[in-house]
Amino acid sequence: MVSFRLAVVAQLAAVVDYVSGAALIAERVPEKAQFRGAAGNRFLHLITTPLTGSMRYTAYKGNGSIEDGWPAQGQWLDFRTLWVTNQRVQINKICDNTEAETGDLYKAIFAVSKTTGVDPRFILAVMMNESRGCVRVQTTSLAVSNPGLMQSYEGRGSCSDPAPLTPCPYKEIEQMVTDGVAPNEAGVNLQDLIARSNATGVEKYYIAARMYNSGPNSISSDKELSVGGADACYAADMANRLLGYIGDSCGPSDHSESSLEWSPTSVPSWDSTATTAAPPTVWWTPSAANAWWTPSPANAWWTPSPQSTWW
Questions:
Q1: Is the CB of residue 112 less than 8 Å from the CB of residue 300?
Q2: What pTM was estimated for this model as a whole?
Q3: pLDDT single digits (tens) 11-54
Q4: Which residue in 36, 101, 261, 297 has the most C-beta neighbors within 10 A?
Q5: How far is 304 from 310, CA to CA, in rounded Å?
């Protein structure tokens, strides 16, 4: 059996989160700490609920409904966890993105989600299936041109066509995401396809995924999502990715069982409040007594939050 393991954030292991184009190295830190980035000081929070468990690729069959065994939207992992796992395992290892470009990608997903109402987790899942999050992904062309991060239908955004563009500017990254999500003349985009599914439950996402991959008229009369299309596994891939799967389409390439396991962890998130104060800068080093973190004035990344009473 082929299996692979992923410790999203193992105890005392660093996780990299890109916000406002700056790399945030978040280890096990107090509940609140400050990071001085390009956009000013922002408070880092840690979600302390352990993420434990294992996930195996499931070849879902049927119409995408809960009744047919597909995962409910409430079972999807939160965006932060999906982002961190995909970033560490695929974006950082496969793509040639700069830190700023990956940060811009993160922001673009939320910007487009806000304007279209499409769940950012669904946008991320489709993007990872289409381009692995590589901002200079090549355009594919069969009957039509499919450029950019979403390999969209006749999209306008690209950082590879006609030649690789470095750095890939934010406006181009946002355009690539917009091309695949927001309404376009052809109607081949996530927002329109979700509406076209004529479903109100979670199946609307899986039906939209099927149509995004193989066209608006690709749903069979029996509404079976696992047949036909450019990639018969596409809808099932989305369901698995939204549960945390990171791997090949249709599961492991040798068709053996594959699992993705998490160690107990905390995942960082950001407060929306920026501050202008710049208190004395400190680092955090492991405390042998309790395996947490204590200030070290030798370095200069983390600044204590005056609102935190942990120390």
A1: no
A2: 0.69
A3: 223 333 333 333 332 322 333 333 333 343 333 333 333 443 34
A4: 101
A5: 10
Q: Which of 268, 301, 240 lies closest to 84, judged by CA?
A: 268
The answer to whether the CB of 46 falls within 8 A of the CB of 27 is no
Identity of residue 291: A
Q: Which amino acid is at 243?
A: L
Structural tokens at position 61: 């069959």
**For 12, what's the count of Cα atoms within 13 Å in the CB-facing half-sphere?**
10
| Cα dist from 56 to 180, 237, 244, 311, whole Å | 28, 12, 9, 41
Tell me what pLDDT residue 253 has: 58
Output the CA torsion sign for 28, 31, 34, 37.
positive
Cβ(101)–Cβ(135) below 8 Å? yes
Distance in angstroms (rounded) separating the CA atoms of residues 280 and 258: 47
The rounded Cα 261 to chain-centroid distance in angstroms is: 17
- The CATH number of the domain covering residues in 58-251: 1.10.530
Task: Give dist(CA 137, CA 225) in Å, integer.
Answer: 27
Q: CA angle, 147 as apex, 141 and 152 as ends, to 5°?
A: 100
**Residue of 269, 270, 299 lying closest to 283 (CA atoms):** 299
- How far the first Cα of the chain sits from its last, in Å, is 47
